[in-house]
Amino acid sequence: MTARLNPIVAQTTLHQQMQQWRRDLHKHPETAYEEFRTCAVVEQKLQDWGLTVHSGLGGTGLVAVLPGKYPGDKHIGLRADMDALPMHESNTFAHASCHHGKMHGCGHDGHTTMLLGASHYLAQNPEFAGTVYFIFQPAEEGGAGANRMVEDGLFTRFPIQEVYGMHNWPGIPAGQFAVHPGAVMAATDSFDIEITGKGGHAAMPDTVVDPVVVAGHLITAVQSIVARNLRPVDTGVVSITRMVGGSAYNVIPETVLLQGTIRSLAETARSLMKQRLQTLVTHTAEAFGAQATLSFTPGYPATINTPANAQHCYQVAMELVGEAQVTWNPPPSMGAEDFAYMLQQRPGAYIWIGNGDAQESRPLHNPYYDFNDAILPLGANYWVRLVQHLCV
């Protein structure tokens, strides 16, 4: 590895600074659209380094603009998410969350820091042609902050031609990357099923229409949607995750509520699963003399990389760590990611950087999770090299 390929690894002081930034952000987590301190910290650093900063996009998001040393027509966006999760942290180290019920349990503190490290280096070494837009996004965790930034003019106020994202991934060893040429993350929809029967005494089941029985049959029946409706080569998930009903041992309730989620990688599968769920809900209830209503809450669309842009990411990652350390086209995740909204507007790619294997790294959204500070320079280097690779 040459100094050009790894400019930040060679700068021990910058790595130490990045660790301090990351741990400060981890200690002060802020959830969706409340990232006021985080945004202020990021904005101040970017301004200190001479970048032009535009704040307030999507509420608490910002975009920093850095022109290269050489003239060029390339305009690329690099995105990091900033928000934390509404969950309690169980870690006891010094930089554990000081805000009860809020935690950087997904590594957005690390994502923000890696992009800050890259912007710091490129501000001092703008050896590229064109313009880079550093996108610091709020509210990825359920708040659709990426969509809010798009609606607030991200791609009309700034002439971004391509957009790139990166997420740490526990289970992938530190020092490795994974790049998908197509689907990376799933589309997600939530649903509510309200079953209405006729309540009564548990000792007199012949006088009631039991919604609990209907719910039980539905819970089993929906498992056939993926197994017996999607093509075996397609991917989908239907999970019922919550059941609410009943008040006493001897009372059959009037209503039961089921809630859950649908996950898919293709719009055709997404539409089919919704249709089949509606059919099962309606006719299973009718078969038992009950009634049922189904409502959907749309979630994020699928995150789909543009193959040519993913190939650029693959090439840069291989230059950094070697071909053996980069996985091309791994299985996608059925988790969701609102970077999908940006990829709907512009070509680009979203990659995974290893946070440590299963023994080294807790899973995402785990109360004991922590971002691996050892990978901060590698992530920042990836951003720097991507800029140098694209902006020539």
From TrEMBL:
Cofactor note (record): The Mn(2+) ion enhances activity.
Keyword Metal-binding listed: yes
UniProt xrefs under SUPFAM superfamilies: Bacterial exopeptidase dimerisation domain (SSF55031), Zn-dependent exopeptidases (SSF53187)
Gene3D superfamilies per the UniProt record, alphabetical: 3.30.70.360, Zn peptidases
Peptidase M20 dimerisation domain location: 190-285
Pfam families: M20_dimer (PF07687), Peptidase_M20 (PF01546)
Cofactor(s) listed: Mn(2+)
One GO BP annotation of this record: diaminopimelate biosynthetic process
CDD domains: M20_Acy1-like
GO molecular function: metal ion binding; N-acetyldiaminopimelate deacetylase activity
Name the UniProt record assigns to this protein: Amidohydrolase
